[in-house]
Design a protein that fits this description.
Blueprint: E1 2-17, E2 20-27, E3 30-36, H1 43-55, E4 75-80, H2 102-119, E5 123-125, E6 132-147
Parallel strand pairs: 3-4, 4-5
Antiparallel strand pairs: 1-2, 1-3, 1-6
């Protein structure tokens, strides 16, 4: 599992519809969490990542690193992103062999979101498997990569 955390002032996700893009989630200050699954992740991995995201001290006065998203009352937007597991070493096209198939990744994604919501009410999400447009205003910028 690979997770990219971005400290944001705001973020949102939209999907295309017949009348154009429709925003399905929006957050204010908090974390944008992009997550990709390799398959084979266990419940204990989901629990560990959820606790890490919720407790990571990446907020504070003047862009400091003293408080967690929970401590500041921030919001979290979780977006599935299988491309985080792309292999780029060979050729000119990304190789997605390391990414879990959608039918294996969906329950992992839902489990991770559920675990976060158990402890923090302000967890929002994109739409699994949809082509999305994600916008954000990175705060810092502060971006962190977490592999499990």
């Amino acid at each position: 599992m690979r997770v990219v955390l971005q400290r944001v002032r705001e973020a949102g996700v939209s999907i295309g519809g017949s009348a154009g893009d429709v925003e399905i989630a929006r957050i204010g200050p908090g974390l944008l969490v992009l997550v990709g699954f390799a398959g084979g992740e266990l419940d204990e991995d989901l629990a560990w990542v959820a606790e890490k995201v919720l407790g990571l001290r990446v907020f504070g006065p003047s862009g400091g690193f003293d408080r967690s998203v929970m401590e500041i009352g921030g919001e979290i937007l979780v977006v599935s992103q299988f491309t985080l597991l792309a292999g780029l070493q060979k050729g000119r096209r990304p190789d997605f062999a390391a990414a879990a198939a959608a039918d294996a990744a969906r329950p992992l994604y839902e489990g991770l979101v559920s675990r976060m919501r158990e402890r923090h009410p302000a967890v929002f999400e994109g739409r699994f498997g949809a082509e999305m447009r994600v916008r954000l205003v990175n705060d810092g910028p502060a971006t962190f990569v977490l592999d499990r």
